Amino acid sequence: MQAIGKYRWTICGLVFFATTINYLDRAVISLLKSTLTKEFIWTETDYANIVVVFQICYALGLLGAGRLIDKLGTKIGYAVATALWSVAAVAHALATNTFGFMIARGALGITEAGNFPAAIKTVAEWFPKKERALATGIFNSGSNIGAIIAPLTVPFIAKNWGWQWAFILTGLVGFIWLIFWFLVYEVPKKHKKLLQPEYDYIHRDADEKIEEDTNAPKLTWAKLLSYKQTWAFAIGKFLTDPVWWFYLFWLPDFLEKQYGLEKTQIAQPVALAYTMAIIGSIFGGWLPMFFIKKGWSVFRSRKTSMFIYALCVLPVVSAQYLGSINMWLAVSIIGLAMAAHQAWSANIYTTVSDMFPKTATASVTGIGGMFGAIGGIIIAKSAGKLFDYYKSNGDAQTGYLIMFLICSVAYVLAWLIMHLIVPKFKKIDF
């Protein structure tokens, strides 16, 4: 490793911090839900509608962001996205009513959509196939770090300086990242600090050497949607992304309603769940690399790993029942499901570069992300109406039981459908 060089891991670190900031900014509102509900007199449906506005705009943003980043390249594309979402995050502090929050969330959704297409494209450019799931798992763990930092800081800031400052201070962090991005980042072909042995190692995959030699064309959305590989990725995201959205926006609320926790009391259980998710994200990237080193094909390693992770989510259906015995047992079960999701996520993202040329990775990631966000919209609206319905009937717990049941079966269903559509993650021959 020392002979090859390891500058690519510095690039992975940059993407990790960008993802951390991305999730920190989007998680702030869930931690201020009770404060903002009292101030603006929100119902559960009002909050769900604000979440849905974010997700609709995020879905639309993903479709455009992937295409734009493939066109602009990772350096400029990632920088533009980060600068814009940081402005949108700060703008939440200017909201004076529910409609104002919807406008701010919509702007945040459109701009934050640039993170994952840019990140996946960066990994495809900087890592060989066998390391991509690990690199994706590492940078994707930033989403959990962001979600841990948020409950440790946001309630404290809001309590001492007001909820507006919670949005302002977290939003400004993105501009600090931009300085390091422009100082450190460049594509491998142009990077002055990248030595030839590491460059050769990054470009070791034979099919991608052919792709670079023949200048694979940039494909239109219509052409990409004609491939079953695109639909396999999109359906997998549609079924599993909403589960993560549910944890992100409703886990603090679940802890408040189920155990009566308030504000800073939520920090420790939320931090535990997301810490488990960090471990899952990194392990999720390591396991297929372990299988590949044992001589398995990339396809077999990826699919076997994803099936294992899908099975690990199943116990979440029992979280509420077992949580009646002990809160930490519920948090641990939810944390296991979140870890399995992040492990799954590290691999489903990597299937894009397994199946598509680098010139199309951001676009396909954007398409799949859009489908995932659409699924998130459906689950957010469903959860809001479900919780309001059972709350009006004096049975708030049943709503969460139904939601945990949906979460538990989503991954096995997604794995089966992906397997039927694409039995092997084979690179498309253009």
Q: If you had to describe this structure to a student in words, what would you say it looks like?
A:
With 430 residues, the chain is an all-alpha fold. It has one domain (7-421): MFS general substrate transporter like domains (Growth Hormone, Chain: A, Up-down Bundle). Helix content is 81%, strand content 0%. It is built from 19 helices and no strands. The chain is globular, with a radius of gyration of 21 Å.
Q: What layout of secondary structure does this protein have?
A:
Elements: H1 7-31, H2 33-40, H3 44-72, H4 74-91, H5 98-112, H6 115-126, H7 129-140, H8 142-161, H9 163-184, H10 196-202, H11 206-214, H12 221-224, H13 228-259, H14 267-293, H15 298-313, H16 319-323, H17 327-355, H18 361-392, H19 396-421
Helix pairs in contact: 1-4, 1-6, 1-7, 1-8, 1-9, 1-13, 3-4, 3-5, 3-18, 4-5, 4-6, 4-9, 6-7, 6-18, 7-14, 7-17, 8-9, 8-14, 13-17, 13-18, 13-19, 14-15, 14-17, 15-17, 15-19, 18-19
Largest sheet: none
Order of secondary-structure elements? HHHHHHHHHHHHHHHHHHH
- Tally of structural domains: 1
What's the shape?
Answer: globular
Name the CATH homologous superfamily: MFS general substrate transporter like domains
Tell me the Rg in angstroms.
21 Å
Number of helical elements: 19
CATH architecture verdict: Up-down Bundle
- Would you report the number of β strands? 0
Beta-strand percent range: under 5%
Average of the residue pLDDT scores: 85
